[in-house]
Specification:
- This protein has 2 domains: about 180 residues, Beta-Lactamase; about 60 residues, Arc Repressor Mutant, subunit A (Orthogonal Bundle), CATH 1.10.10.
- It has 12 helices and 5 strands.
- Strands 1-5-4-2-3 form a 5-stranded antiparallel β-sheet, with helices on both faces.
- The longest helix has 26 residues.
- The chain is globular and about 65 Å long.
- This is LuxR-family transcriptional regulator.
- Keywords: DNA-binding, Transcription, Transcription regulation.
């Protein structure tokens, strides 16, 4: 059945719960339900990653790779989860870094419900080779601590390059299901991050980091805030220790991802 002939209803609460899980043994069954729900919804195949920057593929509770064993990418098909440069070269991955809502894409561009000029400047040359697909509906999944997951939904026909009908019909439903699945996976498989949940930065630390993120030197920040350069350095170093960061850049990155740099003075 074509996408136009399928139901555009949002998934039921029962179906959403079916793709959630709370222990490793639930990963495989939930992945199967996600795969089947997407096929029923819009006739597309499912490809999911919990972290676009990680080389480690998603696995079920027994260690089997979901992409091949459940989502069916076998044989001569591209084994996208085994391509270490994908995070750097794929235009789809680049798009997930600057877009939070579902989009669809092909060699002609990225298509969203609301314009996003950041997508317009992404390089699309050799799209089919670099994206490892002719077209995809993509759900970016922005997670705590700056982690980005993504779910791509692909036509069973490798040459199909127009997913506009499926996108119009099913994008929101796909987003709900993909986010429920990936968020569960990340919680179940996450390593502990001691202390990060209770971090508190002082007002001065936040002020110094905000100006540092704007490209100001310690001396310039001191002039702006009326502080000694050594005092600015002390506050940034203190924030770095609290955030368990190895350098100034990582301190600003972690502070931004935890929401501190958006705080109002």
């Amino acid at each position: 059945m074509s996408a136009a002939g399928r139901s555009c209803a949002m998934p039921s609460a029962a179906l959403i719960d079916a793709v959630r899980f709370s222990e490793p043994g639930g990963i495989g069954p939930a992945a199967e339900r996600l795969r089947d729900a997407v096929m029923d919804l819009c006739g597309l195949r499912t490809a999911v990653t919990h972290n676009v920057a990680s080389r480690e593929p998603m696995r079920d509770g027994n260690g089997a790779v979901l992409a091949s064993e459940i989502f069916g990418f076998r044989g001569e098909e591209p084994r996208w989860w085994e391509v270490p440069q994908l995070a750097l070269s794929s235009p789809i991955v680049h798009a997930c870094r600057v877009e939070a809502e579902p989009f669809w894409c092909n060699a002609h561009g990225f298509f969203t419900r609301l314009p996003n000029p950041l997508l317009d400047v992404i390089d699309l040359h050799d799209f089919r080779i670099r994206a490892m697909t002719a077209a995809a509906i993509v759900v970016p999944i922005h997670l705590p601590f700056g982690q980005i997951g993504a779910a791509s939904f692909l036509s069973p026909e490798p040459e199909a390059n127009d997913l506009s009908d499926a996108y119009a019909c099913a994008a929101d439903a796909l987003a709900v299901l993909a986010r429920a699945f990936v968020q569960s996976y990340v919680k179940v498989t996450a390593r502990a991050r001691p202390g990060l949940g209770s971090i508190s930065l002082t007002k001065r630390e936040v002020e110094c980091l905000r100006w540092a993120a704007a490209g100001k030197t310690n001396e310039e920040i001191g002039i702006i805030l009326g502080l000694q350069r050594t005092t600015v350095r002390f506050h940034i170093r203190s924030a770095s220790v609290k955030l368990d960061a190895v350098n100034r850049d990582q301190t600003m990155f972690k502070a931004a991802q935890l929401g501190f740099l958006g705080m109002i003075n």
